[in-house]
Amino acid sequence: MNKNILIGLLIPFVGTTLGSAMVFLMKKEMNQLLQKILLGFAGGVMMAASVWSLLIPSMDMSSKMGKLAFIPALIGLMLGIFFLLAIDALTPHLHINETEPEGLHAHLKKTTMMVLAVTIHNIPEGMAVGVVLAGSAANNATITLAGALALSIGIAIQNFPEGAIISMPLAAEGSSKKKAFLMGTLSGIVEPIAGLITILLSSIMIPILPYLLSFAAGAMIYVIVEEMIPEASVGKHSNIATIGFAVGFAVMMVLDVALS
User: Residue 15: CB partners within 8 Å, gap ≥ 6?
Assistant: First the structure.
């Protein structure tokens, strides 16, 4: 594995770690308004990454199919959505600001289920980075190393508020700051692992790269629509989350185009 791939895998994890460290700098639980802004921003980054870094390259790779170039992207997109739907239904987890857990019934601590809620959607993000890095390593003309690193940086930016959103509520629930930081950080470790597994299987996956790119996009879009937008829209001042979403989308779009 070359140095660039290793860096690309670790960048998103660094974002989660730095975000989780905010628990040491902020004395009280996270302000609800700030939480809405961060959720909106993270959702915007993920949506832009899904479109610019995953779906569009998927269709570009299938350009030989002419007007049917959308088919691999469509199939992968729907498979990704239904995959995350199944994971969501099977894994016991608890969303922030919710009291009723989702998924299969399990006797787990509340803090554990909160971490699992974030871990679930870190899997497709890790896969997305892994697929794009594998494509660039295979010298695919559609995916450059700069574009792959742009996706890694974009997800790291999105992971920063996500790390804070998980570590600070854990501290507010009674966990020590060190434990909250550790749990927040560990919620992101699944990303480089998922990315690494994807890269190790790249010899099998390269031929179906258009499907894998759109699969990762579908999984990420599911998380945005099913979890992030509803959480950001609860209560007053939901419009601030919309502004955060727009800014996040714009930042990721600029990153992808400027660095690709």
Answer: 155, 156, 157, 158, 159, 160, 163, 188
